[in-house]
C-alpha cells in the first residue's frame, strides 16, 4: 500500500451553503467551473433548465481527467447526447447534487487529480 500526502497547493472549496460557495477565501454566488489546476470560470446558467449542450462542450475544452457536475439542490442528469464532447475526449463525468460535488472535488483535487467541478448554484 502506498501512502501519499494530500495536496494543499490546489484551490479548494472551503465552505458552502444554499446558493453560494467559498473557493479559497472568495465567496461565489453564481454557477462556476472550478479546476484543480487553477481554473475559475463563471458558468452561464442559474437553473438546471438553463443548461444546453454548449455548457458540456465548454467542459470538454478544459481537458480534465474527470468532471464533477453539481446539478443543484438535487441530483439531476443531463441528456446523454449532451455528453458527446466529453466522451469523444475520454473525459469522465460524475453527476451529483452541488454540495456533494464540492466535497468530491476537494477529495480528488487533494489527491492530485486533474479534476473540474462544474457547479450549478441555484438562487
TrEMBL record:
CDD domains: Xcc1710_like. Pfam families: DUF498. InterPro entries: MTH938-like_sf, NDUFAF3/AAMDC. Gene3D superfamilies: MTH938-like (3.40.1230.10). This is Xcc1710-like domain-containing protein.
Amino acid at each position: 500500500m502506498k501512502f501519499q500526502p494530500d495536496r494543499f497547493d490546489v484551490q479548494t472549496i472551503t465552505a458552502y451553503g444554499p446558493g453560494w460557495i467559498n473557493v479559497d477565501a472568495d465567496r461565489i454566488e453564481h454557477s462556476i467551473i472550478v479546476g484543480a489546476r487553477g481554473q475559475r470560470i463563471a458558468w452561464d446558467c442559474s437553473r438546471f433548465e438553463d443548461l444546453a449542450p454548449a455548457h458540456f462542450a465548454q467542459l470538454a475544452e478544459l481537458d480534465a481527467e474527470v468532471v464533477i457536475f453539481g446539478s443543484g439542490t438535487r441530483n439531476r442528469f443531463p441528456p446523454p447526447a449532451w455528453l458527446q464532447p466529453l466522451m469523444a475526449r475520454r473525459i469522465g463525468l460524475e453527476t451529483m447534487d452541488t454540495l456533494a460535488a464540492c466535497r468530491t472535488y476537494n477529495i480528488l483535487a487533494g489527491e492530485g487529480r486533474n479534476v473540474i467541478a462544474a457547479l450549478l448554484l441555484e438562487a
